[in-house]
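Action item from last meeting closed. Structure (568 res):
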């Protein structure tokens, strides 16, 4: 029998039992409140799929009409649908985190304390008379990142996890991209969830809910430290089965966590899947639920679904510009063993321009023998000028393009780029520091951007991104790889005016077949550029009035390292 045709749990006509506001006791005497959805199987016991978050277990999610699961009164944001899972013999448990929703206590989102609470909730559920004692975790985003921290602690009843688009390193993946504070998303996230609690229903029954100083903590801990490490994945401690699920569109928060997990988690049983589309459509698709069910049937029910007989890596290979999903391809490893690591050197042709589609140079196969440099303003000029003292300094749009761009000649054949990327860049600044934003773009035969579907359903005119503050350029040699620089972020190497330094910029993984006649383009900018919103950054005061310089050719040969994949 082929692996894909092996049996999985089928829906049964089981009455649904819904228990609201179940009190779960924690080791310190605190209570968390949970909603439990379970099939009535009489004396039969079932495994449980669990979530814990600050997203409020009672908030109804009304999905878009094109979702492959129908709306119902039990839908909740980024969690599984009980009406699909319970008939297949699973319990679904949603827990309000400490200080969120109906759960009392001091709110500490994405913290070590939250992980301890999750551990206690898992073990309490596992001991209930209707539970088989086997627990799995599954969910998107916050519901995914919490799984890494839980797995660090090794709850005995936790048998397998499936973090679906989940950041794992709170510092590098979410808060500080290359050492640059990612204010746009996390600032709005914090404000919005504060409002959900204080201006929404929770205030009536939990008036101190979501009371935390998270943003102050994030900004005061602007270097990597134990503060961040205890709230992120600790790969050497994650030994249980892991199915790590990423999204190529998640290049500004989640994707790095999923690929790092597959490369570094200590588990003997690991799988990696990377798809495309929104943050929620693939999760609720029939194809996505099939992977989820086969995984948990195997690890929670002991069924031979064939999923562990298949190649461990499953990738959607993007071919550019489709609003629909692409075809999957299986692989045996990540990065791919047949990768041809290819350098494309930056060659300077002309002085910087503010024109939207201008390019200052080329990406070429050989290092230019002639040294050259390009200098551009570090501060973004808006209709309010350089307003670095304004609260709107990060939201006013630039007037014209900033930074510089390099582009290949039209490609002579279809060229697949799948894997992690890196940029070697020689730079200097008139200031004490320099922000480097790198955007990889797919340019069509008529000069148009080829857009992909973003995680929020929006068209995104870029393939992937990378970032680095020059003062954070020190590498961790034990963890760096030629194709994935790993920065220490534990101190600052300030620039001296005009001092030329070497920077290795991590560009998040991607997959794209650049079609014949298309061009591959990179923008190197001092601030957020095309396709950034809502994942924008704080542009610090050292940018105001400064001028940055990039060096190419000669003994300062800057280059882009590409993972070119030959056909199988």
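Sequence:
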């Amino acid at each position: 029998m082929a692996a894909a045709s092996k049996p999985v749990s089928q829906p049964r006509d089981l009455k649904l039992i819904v228990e609201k506001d179940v009190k779960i006791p924690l080791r310190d005497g605190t209570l968390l409140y949970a909603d439990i959805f379970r099939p009535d199987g009489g004396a039969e016991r079932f495994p449980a799929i669990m979530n814990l978050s600050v997203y409020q277990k009672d908030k109804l999610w009304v999905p878009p009409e094109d979702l492959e699961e129908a709306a119902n009164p039990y839908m909740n944001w980024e969690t599984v649908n009980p009406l699909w899972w319970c008939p297949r013999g699973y319990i679904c448990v949603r827990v309000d985190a400490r200080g969120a929703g109906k759960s009392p206590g001091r709110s500490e989102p994405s913290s070590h304390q939250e992980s301890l609470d999750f551990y206690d909730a898992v073990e309490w559920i596992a001991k209930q008379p209707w539970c088989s004692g086997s627990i799995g975790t599954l969910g998107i985003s916050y519901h995914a990142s919490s799984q890494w921290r839980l797995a660090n602690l090794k709850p005995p009843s936790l048998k397998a996890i499936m973090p679906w688009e989940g950041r794992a390193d709170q510092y590098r993946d979410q808060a500080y991209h290359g050492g640059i504070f990612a204010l746009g998303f996390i600032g709005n996230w914090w404000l919005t969830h504060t409002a959900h609690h204080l201006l929404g229903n929770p205030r009536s029954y939990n008036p101190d809910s979501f009371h935390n100083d998270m943003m102050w903590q994030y900004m005061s801990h602007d270097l990597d430290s134990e503060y961040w490490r205890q709230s992120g994945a600790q790969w050497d401690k994650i030994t249980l089965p892991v199915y790590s699920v990423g999204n190529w569109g998640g290049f500004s928060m989640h994707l790095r966590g999923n690929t790092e997990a597959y490369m570094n988690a200590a588990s003997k049983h690991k799988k990696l899947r990377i798809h495309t589309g929104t943050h929620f459509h693939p999760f609720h698709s029939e194809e996505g639920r099939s992977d989820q069910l086969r995984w948990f049937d195997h690890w929670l029910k002991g069924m031979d679904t064939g999923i562990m007989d298949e190649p461990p890596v499953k990738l959607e290979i993007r071919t550019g510009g489709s609003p629909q999903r692409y075809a999957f391809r299986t692989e045996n490893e990540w990065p791919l063993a047949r990768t041809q690591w290819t350098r494309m050197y930056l060659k300077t042709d002309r002085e910087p321009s503010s024109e939207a589609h201008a390019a200052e140079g080329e990406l070429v196969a050989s290092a230019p023998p002639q040294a050259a440099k390009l200098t551009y303003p570090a501060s973004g000029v808006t209709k309010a000028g350089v307003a670095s003292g304004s609260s709107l300094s990060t939201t006013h749009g630039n007037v014209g393009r900033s930074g510089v761009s390099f582009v290949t000649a039209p490609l002579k054949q279809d060229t697949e780029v799948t894997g992690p990327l890196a940029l070697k860049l020689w730079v200097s600044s008139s200031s004490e520091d320099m922000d480097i934003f790198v955007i990889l773009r797919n340019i069509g035969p008529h000069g148009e951007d080829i857009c992909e579907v973003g995680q929020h359903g929006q068209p995104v005119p870029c393939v992937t991104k990378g970032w680095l503050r020059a003062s954070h350029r020190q590498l961790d040699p034990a963890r760096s790889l030629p194709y994935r620089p790993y920065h220490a972020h534990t101190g600052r190497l300030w620039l001296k005016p005009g001092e030329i330094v070497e920077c290795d910029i991590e560009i998040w993984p991607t997959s794209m077949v650049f079609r014949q006649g298309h061009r591959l383009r990179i923008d190197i900018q001092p601030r957020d550029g095309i396709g950034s919103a809502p994942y924008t950054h704080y542009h610090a005061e050292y940018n105001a009035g400064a001028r940055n310089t990039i060096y190419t050719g000669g003994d300062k040969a800057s280059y882009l390292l590409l993972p070119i994949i030959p056909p199988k």
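Note appended to the action item: The chain has a mean pLDDT of 95.
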